[in-house]
Design brief:
Elements lengths: L18 H12 L19 E5 L2 E4 L4 E4 L2 H4 L8 H11 L13 H13 L6 E5 L2 H18 L7 E5 L8 H5 L4 H4 L10 E3 L13 H19 L3 E6 L3 E2 L5 E2 L3 H13 L2 E5 L23 E4 L11 E5 L1 H5 L21 H16 L2 H16 L8 E7 L2 E6 L15 H11 L2 E2 L6 E4 L7 H19 L2
Parallel strand pairs: 3-15, 5-6, 5-7, 7-10, 10-11
Antiparallel strand pairs: 1-2, 2-3, 4-12, 8-9, 11-12, 13-14, 14-16
Helix pairs in contact: 3-11, 4-11, 8-9, 12-14, 13-14
InterPro entries: Aminotrans_3 (IPR005814), Aminotrans_3_PPA_site (IPR049704), BioA (IPR005815), PyrdxlP-dep_Trfase (IPR015424), PyrdxlP-dep_Trfase_major (IPR015421), PyrdxlP-dep_Trfase_small (IPR015422)
Enzyme class: transferase
EC number: 2.6.1.62
């Protein structure tokens, strides 16, 4: 007679081990985690096994709760285990899990493309689906280059990106990124972009407004285009917020000027809205705040509400038509992923869009953002805070050694890690970018939960700067 399987909650546990410890030990025997020096988990940084999510909260194997202040790498919009998205997925599971997307199609992908074309800026009518944000950037870069090649402009092989930009960690996406932490090691493998000075308002000259800073940087971009437009496929930017580069924020007028310059010099405008899209900046898409339509818009992260990996690259009919020809013309766009157009991911995306359609998401986000701004305002006077900045549901606090000179703390001191560890000890997931403590919570967070997040962060900042 077959014996019942042991309870998986207790498998391989010693009598004095907690469930967290047992699962962490099993993890560390085999798994290699992203953006992590695994040696840290030998004692400095705990490995926390999460067994379930409840709205904006995560629950570990020992029952401790953590308020997810970063939306699990900026993906989760409407809470963990959201019942509406979950129900849509369960229904889809009973009909179709996946099918090859070359020569075949299905209604979830068709409807998703239709709805994305309806809600994104005007002119974005063609939708190419991929697996994740980095893949979307790869698609946009290749599609832009291939467009010019099909148009007889094969000399256009370069891209212009902003200083401090981050677009992903595959080789193409990393090639148009400028965060040394990610790029330096792999530089010999990468394309070399032309770097335009970021319009980051934190770098404005004394007395210069964010709008004036943007105008000055547009002038510098113009000079670069005068020199390089003949060899440039596209300018790629993260609209309004350069997220992984330190939550650097800039005035929407830069996007307006960028659109005009791209038109004037005959280069594409790629908008990387992977992190800033779907309500994160206060409007459904960040480009709306400048009233512009890019030639390519890359979407991912919040597209599925944080449930499944999926990305979309939206582009214009003229771009699509540059590839539309007889087979023997050799103009087809040759890019694919095994799970392109996955029906489950498309269904999760549709359920996410349904929530935006049926609920006052953006209105509530504005109220939450205003509350967060009020709570963070006193930090502007803190002697080790050089800047408190916010765009919609993204807020950041810049810690510095010297407020007057803005001299940073040395990176090897890992002050941000102290904030992270303090957060875990007090029920909050905060994961600073270097010495930038930021907030990007799910949209279902309450004002009381925001208060908890800010209170823990403030205490963590005091702990981080103590010597």
């Amino acid at each position: 007679m077959r014996q019942p399987a042991p309870n998986p909650d207790h498998t391989r546990m010693s009598p004095n081990e907690s469930r967290n410890q047992a699962l962490a030990a099993r993890d560390l025997r085999h798994l290699w985690h992203p953006c992590t020096q695994m040696h840290d988990h030998a004692g400095t940084v705990p490995m926390l096994p999460i067994v379930r999510g409840e709205g904006p909260w995560l629950v570990d194997a020992d029952g401790r709760r953590y308020l997810d202040g970063i939306s699990s790498w900026w993906t989760n919009l409407f809470g963990h285990a959201n019942p509406r998205i979950g129900a849509a997925l369960k229904q889809q599971l009973d009909t179709l899990e996946h099918v090859i997307f070359a020569g075949f199609t299905h209604e979830p992908a068709i409807e998703l493309a239709e709805r994305l074309a309806q809600i994104t800026p005007a002119g974005l009518e063609r939708v190419f689906l991929a697996d994740n944000g980095s893949a979307a950037i790869e698609v946009a870069l290749k599609m832009s280059f291939h467009y010019w090649l099909n148009q007889g402009a094969g000399q256009k092989t370069r891209f212009i990106a902003l200083t401090g930009s981050y677009h992903g960690e595959t080789l193409g996406a990393l090639s148009v990124s400028d965060v040394a932490l990610y790029r330096k090691t792999y530089a010999p493998l990468l394309l070399t972009p032309v770097l335009a000075p970021s319009p980051d308002a934190y770098e404005a000259e004394p007395g210069e407004s964010a709008e004036a800073c943007a105008a000055r940087r547009l002038g510098e971009l113009r000079v670069l285009l005068e020199q390089h437009a003949h060899e440039t496929c596209a300018v790629i930017v993260e609209p309004l917020v350069q997220c992984a580069g330190g939550m650097r924020m800039y005035h929407p007028s830069y996007l307006t000027g960028l659109r005009a310059l791209c038109d004037e010099f005959g280069v594409h405008f790629i908008a990387d809205e992977i992190a800033v899209g779907f309500g994160r900046t206060g409007t459904l898409f960040a480009c709306e705040q400048a009233g512009v339509s890019p030639d390519f818009m890359c979407l991912s992260k919040g597209l599925t509400g944080g449930f499944l990996p999926l990305s979309a690259v939206l582009t214009t009919t003229p771009v699509y038509e540059a590839f539309y020809a007889e087979y023997n013309a050799g103009k087809a766009f040759l890019h694919s992923h095994s799970y392109t157009g996955n029906p489950l991911a498309c269904r999760a995306a549709l359920a996410t869009l349904d929530i935006f359609r049926d609920e006052p998401v953006l209105e509530r986000n504005r109220e939450l953002a205003a509350h967060l701004a009020r709570r963070l305002a006193p930090l502007r006077e803190h002697p080790q805070v050089a800047d408190v900045r916010q765009t919609g549901m993204i807020a950041a606090v810049e810690l510095v050694r010297d407020k007057a000179t803005r001299a940073p703390y040395p990176s090897e001191e890992r002050r941000g890690l102290r904030v992270y560890l303090h957060g875990l000890e007090h029920g909050a997931l905060l994961r600073p970018l270097g010495n930038v403590v930021y907030f990007m919570p799910p949209y279902v967070v309450s004002t009381d939960e925001l208060d908890h997040l800010v209170d823990v962060a403030i205490a963590g900042i005091e702990r981080a700067i103590a010597d």
